[in-house]
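Exercise 7.
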Amino acid sequence: MSSTDRLPRLLALVPYLMSHPGAQVPEVAKVFGLTEKQLIDDLQLVWMCGLPGHTPGDLIDVSWDGGEILIDNADTIARPLRLAVDEASALLVALRMLLEFPQFAEVGDHDALARVIAKLERAAGEGAAAVSSLVAVEMDAAPDALAAVNEGLRAGRRLSLSYYVPGRDEVTPREVDPMRLVVADGRSYLEGWCYRADAVRLFRLDRMLEVRILPEAADPPAEAEPLDVARGVFRPSATDELVELEVTPAGRWVAEYYPCEEVTELGDGRLRVTLRARDQGWLVRLALRLGDTGRVVAPASLADAVKERACAALARYENGADVG
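Solution. The predicted structure, written as tokens, is:
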């Protein structure tokens, strides 16, 4: 487990132990979702922490003999964590987005969430509430698409979509048995069984040019399992083309934004990034977007395609400049 995961847990563990004197190792491990060994490792680290000076009187005193955890000399960090203005603002925006999401009304307690938001605003202070109120949360669906999708989900009816696929720059007809609405990577998606792909697919609402509710009942097959979107929507396949890029410090965002097979530090902030993609057109656009902050190392066919597209764009620009 990384230190970035462990530090927040330790900062929460100490206040918890201070407010639960004599808590037992098994119950604390269960509260924090740890094994007993992981909890003991955390307690051993807490035992080495304290104020500058690092004398016995400066360090936190913690013991767990017999399974009972006792902690002392930890008053300086016993207070629960407080959110900074930017952290509280981000949380408020996310909660308001959830409140506006149509499917939440079916699975969640709207009034309870509204009360949570109000309490958080009071606790965070005027600064966070004012900042978060300046952010407008809107669903990104095309006109009438969201209403039609919601009606199809509510009525359990199949949907007919005219769907724009940017990778191929074409509009495709789809018949979809809707399963649910999800928000991933800041976008709204319909998840459903696509009869064109014969598989579960995600469809961005803002790429739906038309949505019609069909008379057929939605009946996804038994193998239609919901997709795990926790790690993002884009999931490359092992059969997709393997691409190698080198990027400058200004192009490092590629390694953070897309799933990568391998990321290698080259020094001076540069990276070599290896990723997979099934659509060379998308890769060409990515390379052009990088500009002088990145270059294609392999395959050579992709580097040639990028060069050809860039030269064609430059020629059009120069011709336009001559005419003007």
